[in-house]
Amino acid sequence: MGPPEAAVSxxxxxxxxxxSETVRPMSMLDQHRRQMAREREKRLRLSKDVQTISxxxxxxxxxxxxxxxxxxxxxxxxxVDRLERDLLRAEGKVVDHDKAIxxxxxxxxxxxxxxxxxxxxxDVLRQRDRVRRDQVVxxxxxxxxxxxxxxxxxxxEVEAFSLxxxxxxxxxxxxxRQYDVFLSFATPDLTAAGNLRDELHARGLxxxxxxxxxxxxxxxxxxxxxxxxxxxxxxxxxxxxxVNPDRFWPRQELAALIMGRxxxxxxxxxxxxxEVEAFSxxxxxxxxxxxxTHGLDEIADLxxxxxxxxxxxx
Length: 314
Prior knowledge:
alpha/beta, Rossmann fold, five-stranded parallel sheet, two-stranded antiparallel sheet, 11 helices, elongated
């Protein structure tokens, strides 16, 4: 029997040559990024398990002293002991995943550095090519000027403008765009955070915000991870809702920003800096802005001045 000539997909016959051309191997960097997303999802699930076990322990422990009989007390104590063992195991798994995430982050950093070096080398080659092209253009223009002088002719204003336009088009390469700011906020502050985003947009900054960038049915973990990775810096809109210990996502986003070595600017509303310090010493250590002393428009002006012009305006 000879080799198959086609593969079946959705009831249609596709040539194997076509399939081999359309399937591309995934780069090592993409593999690491996918693995990172999976590890972070596992880590989030384990963190929720730790929270659940801790909550059950806090409910079970007081019941030991309230037991009506000694046997009931011993039974409840055994249940508490079992939960404590489960908590230790779950916390150990969280630590193991943190180590795995840190290892993957190191690999991603190395791959990104290698990719950046390749891009830099390509940019150098492109620049050399531009210089060579410019030299050729200069020689051609010199030759044209000499010929024009001999023939007592000159370029018209329209011809000169066309040459200038062509030179600018050749010299300017497209710039890869990314987000300027990742905006972290608590859900109850959606309106106020949206106002800050609008102020930043009006000043030319491209802002990543979960309500606009993650659609229905899409993974929050993957979306937030990609948003942080593609942003130049982070802004944490820190409010009483943001520091509420019952809220899960603000802490996770802040941790991801700091682990990703992003510049983080706290914008504080309704809190003092000491309260921010109590919530997170890493966040409280960073110079920030407060709505008690500045309006959102002033805050946006100061952020633009600090982080520079927007990528959307490049």
